[in-house]
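User: Modeling request: complex.
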Amino acid sequence: MNVCPGRSAWTASLGIPLVWEDFGEEVLVYCERSGETHYLNLTAAEILSLLEETPKSAEDLVMELRAAGAGDEAGDLLPQVEAILQQFVHAGLICTASP
Amino acid sequence: LHGFTVKLGELAESDVASALGGPTGIAVSMGPFVVRIRASIDTLAGPLALLYRDFQVHPEAPFADFHVSLEPGRGLRRWYKPQVQFKLDGLSPFEPFPRDTALPLFEWGLNWCIGQRCHQYLILHAASLERNGKAVLLPAHPGSGKSTLCAAMANRGWRLLSDEFGLYDLDRHCLVPLPRPVALKNASIEVIRRFAPEATLGPLFPKTRKGTVAHLRPSPEAVARMEETARPALVVFPKFIPGSPVIASSMSKGHALLRLAHNAFNYEVTGADGFKAAARIIRGAESLELCYGDLDAAIAKIDRLVS
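Assistant: Request completed. Predicted assembly structure:
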């Protein structure tokens, strides 16, 4: 599944809550569905946390990240967010939200 | 043996052999486990009595966690190049070993039993030792010098909790001692003989699958205190490099947690509980990599870090 530009909404709420360990500059997440442990930087952790709350598109995420002070322009952040979403899809951490 | 609780070393070797060959064998307390051992071969009693000298024998233990037996090879292998088989609950999970390597087979077999079944613990491939209420975990891959450093520390005032397994109790959040003999391999055997001439090593077992193996007997204190748990204060990932000075490199908690989780035998089985346990260990302890080429220098560094 590819992450395409657009308004697709993504969710990390997949039935079993993720288990978080926040060490400040580092965040680790344990996914019970896959049994995998993931090491996240702060941006990735923020995105995954937002997607655990409610489904969001890449653009929604960019707006929320900018509101939180990340990045100078929306254009800078969008490719980065999409790349992170792509990795989350491969890791089984997110999927498209049902309409 | 009837009706008494005694230490294995208080029995004559012939009595140990006789009891091992009897219908119920010998039940021995090893940390949180009771292991019932039967052996109808004559090559286990001697090394077992020597290395488990201070362990309690329970002739009438109503319950045992593991029922293991060592039996002669089948068919011609009873006589020609005789072999020994390890059995757990009557089933043989391994290929037979040469008859004269019954003790290493018993040790490896028991490791296998614990690793397969004891998921009330996060089972780390780590040595663990304690002093003044603070435990040090030494998680490492084979060949890192873990057992050598562990044996050396156990002979410099540290209480051996365990060599092969760091057993972290998922409910009580502490390390549970399992002070069985420390398996030393190849060059490490002579290193520890020179480092601690007063230490008791069992017989040499050459040409095993891991080369020559000998076992260090745990101290009487380590065995007597094997119900005293401890909390990890330091996590050291050791790496022996010949000639290297001691180099301690701090690790971030995130990377230390990943390394520790990767090191656990049953991380996948314990799931989120295992993740939380590993995180709890890392939160409560300093973590570092330690390169060393000299045992005394490495121990002095660890002593300073813990004090």
